[in-house]
């Protein structure tokens, strides 16, 4: 057995939470059945594909190996706290994977009728598992992939996204920059594919909210910025007048060295500096301090955005079971849960100051986006004044008319 395979429980890295529903009825509202000890058992499988991490200059704060899984474990614990009184019992079986072949083999085994699955994996694997879910009557929750195409063109009909898209991240930032009148942007784009995708999202957000990218530069250097940043970065950031420097460096290779080293004394934002996040340790309003405290007590570290997405996925499942009032015809089926989660009846209280719901066209969880620096919350988007016919949360990310997806019709 590899060292990776022995990390935790049955864990191998691929974030897929498969909910096999057994017991009485998935959405049974029968009070007598809820009182029985043999009520509703919900088996959740969490699979995560271990990411290929490229080397970076500084690795002072490596991502926790249990990112995502830790949030799922708290979600199980929170759901069982309520489930003791309402007749549900939630269980978690987690697996991590190093190879795509092993991941798909396990996904194929787990993806059966009435399974509910959370996945943290690359887009190609998500698309393959979604196809299995559609064929076999299962549901997937994407808890770690921000790819915009999953919400606009690939259209995963049996997948919900609790992790925000890149467009939601960059729209949240662009709204705040517009309110502060930082409208002239310098963009520094890293060499990786994910950096280019983030830069593309920034360009879209700039156009959407009335800002202009007046200077764009690509980072192609391999020098050790730990020793040379003070000399190299001021020269690199020379150019036309700009109000703010936007960085697209998702791996954190060079972006951390940009603040305070620009030619003009300007703020830095994007993947470094002022950063849009799904969740961060500095979020404490709206009762969030309680969630932070429970997580830290359970795992002895701070909760991150992947932890939050996995927690929200499991809480969505348990809340859907509690909130659904129908009595007949939907027992032991995941399909009714899909339609309920997409309906206006469902909502999730998730410590962000809003009741969260899912977008009917692509399954994205609507949510406010904190804008943070390392030790404080600066703001939370959507910003005041950005209106929308349905909800201001739909000013973040791709709106219905911008997406080809219509999963509510599938």
TrEMBL record:
Domain of life: Bacteria
Signal peptide feature range: 1-33
Statement: the UniProt record of this protein carries the keyword Transferase: no
Keyword tags: Signal
Entry-linked InterPro entries: ABC_transptr_sub-bd_PQQ (IPR022478), Leu-bd (IPR028081), Peripla_BP_I (IPR028082)
Domain Leucine-binding protein: 67-216
Family to which this protein belongs: Belongs to the leucine-binding protein family.
The protein's name in its UniProt record: ABC transporter substrate-binding protein
Organism: Oceanospirillum sediminis
Source organism phylogeny: Bacteria, Pseudomonadati, Pseudomonadota, Gammaproteobacteria, Oceanospirillales
